[in-house]
Specification:
Blueprint (H helix, E strand, L loop, with lengths): L1 H15 L8 H16 L5 H16 L8 H22 L5 H18 L13 H4 L9 H18 L3 H17 L3 E14 L13 H12 L10 E3 L5 E3 L9 H13 L3 E8 L4 E10 L3 E7 L13 H6 L10 E2 L7 E4 L2 E5 L8 H9 L4 E5 L9 H17 L3 E4 L6 E3 L5 E2 L8 E12 L2 H28 L6
Parallel strand pairs: 1-2, 2-4, 3-4, 5-7, 9-10, 10-11
Antiparallel strand pairs: 1-14, 4-5, 5-6, 8-9, 11-12, 12-13
Amino acid sequence: MRKLLSPFFAGVLVAASLPPWGWWPLSFIGLAWYASIARTRRTTSPFATAFVFSFGWFLPGMAWMWFLTAPGFIIAVAIFATLHGIAAKLASSFSNESQHTSALIVFHALAETVRLSWPFGGVPLATLGIAHASSPWSPLVAWTGVIGLSAVVLWIGFSQHKFRAIVISLVLVGVANVWDGASHTGRSLTIAVVQGGGEQGTRAINSNPRDVFVKHLNLTRTLQPSPTRDAVVWPENVINVSATGLFVDSVEYRELLAEAKRLQVPLVVGITEDAGPDAFTNAQVVIDPELGITSRYDKVRRVPFGEYMPMRSLLSSVGAPTHLVPRDARAGDARGWIDIDDERAAVAISWEIFFGGRVNEGIVDGATFIINPTNGSSYTWTILQTQQIASSRLRAQEQGRWIVQAAPTGFSAFIDPNGRVHDRTGISESALIERTIPLRTGRTPYSLLGNAFYIGLLLVWAIVLLQRRYRAIPRGAS
């Protein structure tokens, strides 16, 4: 038991570096502690050591998933801990201390990369990148994305020459701060965000959709028309007509069109609507005061066990509570943007803000800012919501764009291209926030290169290490 406690508590230190706790220096301490244990147990228990370390990291860091699916939470933590166990096992074949350290860095970085997209499309939370959204290293994402930032954090944590690693990485941070490829257009937009408020831990199946809509409508009606306001943004899926048909045929649409006419600005609102007996859609639409619906984006990346139920038949057969997600969201296939009058906004609906590639799609197509309509009202505590704010900070720096985040029960906020958070609301409060945001153009190195480039670098690094290992094995040795 004592052998398990050390790596477990090293993992807990990494978890404590994550939001909502946010003590980011602890990630370096936890990683260094784990690396020292991994070196001493390289030939005896590399897999078990890494598995227990990762369990200590993910158990608290992903505790939000418990309220979504308790069995899924345990399974996800075990799967991700296994990935890191495999990474440590691969690294353990290197007896040279320097190569073993390099192998720990690259294989653990690849383990983190895998879980960004697998299983079920990935669960990219509790990452080292999210832990460092407020650290001096966060500007690196404009060049490296989260994959590269995670590798740098692992390099510093695992390195036996930490001072040198810190100095080199901070020099790179300086370069990222001087130039990121994005620039001002000279234009700006004034945007109001509506947060209706309400109790956390409330599932859609246990609430009246009309009540949620009315909260946001009544708050919007307190806004006075203004010639300087350009748009009003509502959160994800606070308009739910999925049981009655299409949004354009609903009374909610007529009420919102009237409100758009009163304010004389577009309303950007989140809807769910019917898509057949077993499916619904989750979309963000633009309601123009004169033209009605002028732009629409349907969510592509759905939340596993939240918006759709993987392996529904199997889980139902073993008594899992699949009734909590009675119908599956139908994934969209459009590019990730909407047009608000003459400006293009990249759109990442809720979960999608954790995926750099989803946001980048809109930037490639000319978006000058980013909108993240979200709905975290199903989750108790604030682990998910604070990690989402952190992820938005990373996306803003990755793309050199402002982000507008709108949530029905918090957090709503504006995030600038340097990752600073403005006008952040409280959890459960009813609030209106409004800000003028500069619009930006150009693409960062990350936007141009994408995740594939950095995944390729890690794979090349791993192949080079493995080739050296193979060549170092004496002929005839097993």
